[in-house]
Structure to design on (1092 residues):
């Protein structure tokens, strides 16, 4: 906690509490304690006070005990020599400030001084303002309002947001249609900057509350001078030109918690947590921050709303009360950018980041249609304008994590020629580099997200995408080109879709597209280096190196008792989910089908049995199974749902296992083809001696280690041997049996046990002399 | 006859009780079971399953002629008459579908929706279930308006699906209504939706679960196996599956050719009326046996048959 801020906030709170006390006693003296007090068109009394204390203030007299409470929250202003952690005192001062401000507003209402009538002093209010619907009492709206303002020289600002509007906006804040709200306090560097900030916020659907001033000038003046339409319809609410009016946004926040959080007055903690976790609001302080602003900001922080200032002030970076930083200083003139407008953009971006506001991309903004219906589209050679990759082509796709400062959300750059310049049917080099920043982004998720490039790009009409990494192959149809599709749109697609589908881990996305041969080749080498690193990392990702496994229960819709438990060295039995995918999926969807299972309570290292995994299985298999070993097929093996890529099954005579691929329709030595075997093994059963698995499990170091690993495989579908030949040979090499793969029978030489045994004897398969399995 | 010793099972869990209606209107409480359906010797079943009857705010176009024959007059007369006749036919509650909000059925808006609900509430005093037209964006629009307009009436509003649950839940929380959480015949998705809804601080006793009905011959077996698993999980103590279940045998049972087609079908199928009623009844009774707490039905005769079945299944002196 910054001592400077603590001191200023506490000083500010003393002053405002004193002012409120004076205001209140004066009003009671003049009007009597029974004078009713109410904010118009709302049913929540003085909402901040009601939320915090449960007290329903209905008369001036009711305010007295609140005033006393506010006073009791005040700590002495820290003396110069004292050095204490001030957070608690500062937050208390903030709460006292909010009470004082709300009391002042209450009295102003009683005196008919709210909503504020702001002198126009020559500002011309746009008569085109037809939609600026306010609901302040007795106010005309639209053109009439503008005309009235012009003729009487006042522009009436908004009082508290009425309950009807609260419901409309509150529900959108809860269901995510509205990403959050910004309380802007003060005055921007220039009118131009004020407008830009507001436009940038509006563009993202963020609700904007305007209050306060710096030396008498308010952002409200700035916006009116520039003819910006203010009102509910444009998501901009001018509350007042002094700092006290900043109480309205907090009252609004309190009321949304009361309305949509099912809380009642006095549940202060719940209300604050509700706001912290669900209402993505922040305070943007423009211009000099005085004591009262610090004090009010401290009040806002209790709601979990961080404060971003465009001036040099001490920062409070550690998190705690707010989700991320508490107070961030971003002196406007020091922001990087070619002009003030760019600086304004950066400032808004930073606000969004500090609060963790999640922006929703409504649509993929490209000139052709977009949707999963186009994913399978094939573009024939004669229909294509150009292709990238494929035979003889040079392409790569690389998604990397980057620091937030280095990523400008939505930026797409093309380096090299665009579609317009290509000869029809040309094969052009293409490099796509996607940079992603996010608070929850992890290096490990790079490959998970990168793999999505394929189906994201494929969703565009007239764009075909095959493969990934440096074997990606893209075709773009003439028709799409004619409708305006250009290479930068590949970037727009990736930006929009990564936000839409991965907002939990992705905050910012920028894309660079390259079509110069030399550059693509150069960067492809860089990317290849990374692919290689990733391969090594995945290969080194061992069960021992992690402390968590993941479950997958996606298949329970068909096989109710089936649970895949996925460790780094074994993919899910469908082959589609590996450990990293599950980890990312859990991050994205914490209540989804992939749940973490902490490796706890080791029962047997040899069999791969843990207490925690057993418990998880019991709870999630409908209490059907209570044991599971990860490293053995003979004792409590993984259940099998039905979508396994392969089935392995004990052949007792051979003292080993056969592995049958889903793609193998032929007969096996067990006398059953895959389909029959699948019927026997599937349905969520646990069958010792029989197990479904992904095909890459075969080359894992944790391939049935308890039974002796790959050496136990006596028969394998021929298609597996062919499609995975190099990986299998490598695995054989690794276990010191380089010739093993040729000793494994397949459907071409054995479809009965007799034939199998004859083959194994002939080649001298190691399983024959291994310890007996049964 | 020698006495048979019935083996009993002791469950740790209990289905939540949900109260619909009230606020000077009739109340219906559902749920509260501590055992599987109708096994009175194992635990308690404090409330009989309830029956709601479907009404729509415009005369339906594609309902079976058999339903047209019984409801045709009130469909023409209007919602109030329809709702009254539903209660006369034995409905414990009325299930109003705001069909006219469907973009293909008139695309009416919030004002019409509120009007329709007002009519039904004025005509009958049983609890009311309100369904949107089944298009998430439109559901949000009309249900939010209804929710606001009838705060405190403890209506059940649906459907609340993973696509729009936040909106429906928020509005139900703000106005004291009940959400109908619908998931597509999948125990995990049903549970996940309940978790998401309660994560928004919605109290568990204001959630009904609709695991989606497949009618007899059209996925009924999926429905009841998912229902059974949800219920067993609830009784084993899983609070996120312990919501009462609401099913729609009426809507589903009358949707297929067996309940709609008079001509050009094998003579063994018998007459259309009996066939349709049997279809709805069989679907409903299977769901009762799998744990349904509310059945939303259509034909008065099917309602009569199911009520008889409920009465005898609830009788504990057998
Ligand atoms: S088979 Fe695949 S999808 Fe199914 S549960 Fe296992 S990992 Fe999940
Ligand atoms: S395997 Fe069966 S249960 Fe698993 S997803 Fe495929 S069809 Fe399903």
């Amino acid at each position: 906690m910054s001592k400077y801020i603590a001191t200023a906030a506490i000083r500010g709170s003393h002053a405002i509490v004193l002012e409120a006390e004076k205001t209140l006693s004066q009003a009671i003296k003049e009007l009597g304690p029974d004078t009713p007090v109410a904010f118009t068109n709302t049913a929540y009394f003085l909402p901040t006070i009601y939320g915090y204390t449960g007290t329903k203030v209905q008369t001036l007299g009711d305010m007295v005990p609140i005033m006393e409470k506010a006073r009791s929250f005040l700590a002495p202003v820290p003396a110069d020599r004292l050095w204490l952690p001030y957070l608690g005192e500062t937050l208390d001062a903030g709460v006292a400030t909010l009470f004082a401000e709300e009391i002042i507003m209450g009295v102003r209402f009683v005196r008919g001084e709210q909503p504020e009538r702001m002198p126009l002093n020559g500002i011309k209010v746009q008569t085109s303002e037809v939609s600026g619907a306010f609901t302040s009492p007795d106010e005309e709206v639209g053109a009439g309002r503008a005309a009235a303002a012009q003729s009487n020289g006042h522009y009436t600002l908004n009082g508290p947001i009425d309950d009807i509007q609260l419901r409309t906006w509150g529900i959108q804040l809860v269901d995510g249609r509205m990403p959050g709200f910004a309380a802007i306090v003060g005055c921007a560097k220039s009118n131009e900057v004020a407008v830009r900030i507001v436009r940038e916020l509006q563009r993202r659907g963020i609700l904007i509350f305007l209050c306060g001033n710096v030396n008498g000038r308010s952002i409200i003046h700035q916006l009116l001078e520039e003819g910006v339409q203010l009102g509910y319809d444009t998501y901009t609410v001018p509350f007042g030109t002094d700092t006290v009016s900043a109480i309205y946004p907090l009252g609004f926040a309190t009321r949304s918690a009361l309305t949509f959080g099912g809380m009642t007055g006095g549940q202060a903690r719940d209300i604050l947590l509700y706001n912290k976790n669900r209402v993505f609001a922040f305070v943007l302080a423009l211009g000099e921050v005085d004591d009262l602003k610090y004090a009010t900001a401290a009040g806002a922080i209790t709601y979990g709303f961080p404060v971003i200032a465009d001036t040099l002030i001490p920062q409070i970076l550690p998190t705690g009360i707010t989700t991320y930083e508490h107070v961030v200083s971003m002196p406007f003139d020091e922001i990087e950018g070619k002009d003030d407008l760019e600086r304004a953009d950066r400032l808004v971006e930073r606000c969004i980041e500090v609060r963790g506001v999640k922006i929703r991309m409504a649509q993929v903004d490209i000139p052709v249609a977009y949707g999963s219906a186009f994913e399978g589209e094939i573009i024939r050679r004669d229909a294509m304008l150009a292709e990238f990759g494929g035979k003889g082509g040079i392409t790569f796709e690389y998604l990397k994590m980057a620091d937030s400062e280095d990523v400008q959300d939505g930026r797409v750059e093309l380096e090299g020629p665009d579609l317009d310049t290509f000869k029809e049917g040309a094969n052009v080099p293409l490099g796509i580099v996607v940079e992603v920043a996010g608070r929850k982004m992890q290096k490990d998720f790079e490959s998970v997200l990168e793999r999505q490039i394929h189906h994201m790009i494929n969703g565009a009409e007239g764009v075909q995408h095959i493969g990934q990494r440096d074997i990606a192959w893209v075709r773009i149809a003439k028709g799409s080109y004619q409708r305006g599709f250009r290479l930068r749109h590949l970037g727009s697609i990736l930006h929009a879709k990564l936000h839409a589908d991965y907002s939990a881990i992705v905050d910012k996305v920028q894309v660079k597209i390259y079509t110069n041969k030399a550059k693509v080749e150069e960067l492809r080498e860089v990317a290849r280096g990374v692919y290689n690193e990733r391969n090594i990392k995945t290969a080194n990702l061992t069960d021992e190196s992690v402390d968590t496994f993941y479950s997958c229960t996606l298949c329970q819709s068909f096989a109710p008792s089936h649970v895949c438990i996925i460790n780094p060295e074994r993919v899910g039995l469908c082959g589609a989910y590996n450990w990293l995918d599950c980890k990312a999926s859990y991050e994205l969807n914490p209540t989804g089908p992939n749940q973490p299972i902490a490796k706890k309570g080791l029962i047997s290292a040899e069999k791969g049995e843990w207490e925690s995994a057993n418990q998880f299985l019991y709870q999630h298999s409908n209490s059907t199974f209570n044991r599971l070993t990860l490293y053995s097929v003979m004792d409590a093996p993984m259940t099998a749902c039905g979508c396994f890529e392969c089935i392995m099954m004990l052949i007792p005579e051979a003292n080993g296992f056969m592995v049958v691929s889903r793609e193998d329709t032929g007969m096996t030595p067990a006398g059953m083809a895959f389909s029959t075997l699948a019927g026997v093994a599937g349905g969520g059963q646990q069958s010792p001696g029989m197990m479904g698995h992904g095909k890459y499990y075969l080359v894992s170091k944790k391939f049935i280690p308890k039974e002796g690993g790959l050496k136990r495989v006596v028969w394998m579908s021929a298609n597996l041997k062919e499609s995975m030949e190099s990986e299998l040979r490598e695995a054989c090499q690794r276990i010191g049996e380089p010739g093993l793969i040729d000793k494994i029978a397949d459907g071409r030489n054995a479809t009965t046990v007799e034939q199998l045994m004859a083959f194994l004897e002939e080649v001298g398969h190691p399983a024959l002399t291994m310890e007996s399995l049964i | 006859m020698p006495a048979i010793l019935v083996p009993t099972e002791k469950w740790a869990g209990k289905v939540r009780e949900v109260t619909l209606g009230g606020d000077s209107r009739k109340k219906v409480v559902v749920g509260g079971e501590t055992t599987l359906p109708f096994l009175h010797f194992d635990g308690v079943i404090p409330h009989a399953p309830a029956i709601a009857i479907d009404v729509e705010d415009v005369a339906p176009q594609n309902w079976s002629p058999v339903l047209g024959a019984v409801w045709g007059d009130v469909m023409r007369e209007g919602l109030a008459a329809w709702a009254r006749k539903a209660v006369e036919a034995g409905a414990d509650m009325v299930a109003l579908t705001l069909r006219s909000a469907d973009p293909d059925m008139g695309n009416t808006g919030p004002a019409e929706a509120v009007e329709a609900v007002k009519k039904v509430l004025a005509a009958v005093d049983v609890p009311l279930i309100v369904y949107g037209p089944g298009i998430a964006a439109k559901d949000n629009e009309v249900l939010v308006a209804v929710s606001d307009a009838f705060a405190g009436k403890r209506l059940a509003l649906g459907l609340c699906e993973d696509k729009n649950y936040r909106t429906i839940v928020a509005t139900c929380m703000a106005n004291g209504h009940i959400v109908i959480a619908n998931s597509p015949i999948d125990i995990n998705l049903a549970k996940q939706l309940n978790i998401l809804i309660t994560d928004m601080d919605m109290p568990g006793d204001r959630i009904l679960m609709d695991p989606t009905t497949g009618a007899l011959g059209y996925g009924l077996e999926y429905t009841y196996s998912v229902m059974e698993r949800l219920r067993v999980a609830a009784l084993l103590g899983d609070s996120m599956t312990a919501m009462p279940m609401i099913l729609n045998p009426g809507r589903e049972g009358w949707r297929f050719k067996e309940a709609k087609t008079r001509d050009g079908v094998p003579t063994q199928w018998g007459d259309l009326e009996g066939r349709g009623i049997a279809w709805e009844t069989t679907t409903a009774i299977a769901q009762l046996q799998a744990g349904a707490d509310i059945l939303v039905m259509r034909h008065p005769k099917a309602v009569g048959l199911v009520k008889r079945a409920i009465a005898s299944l609830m009788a504990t002196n057998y």
The first strand of chain A starts at residue 117 and ends at 119. Chain A is about 35% helix and 15% strand.
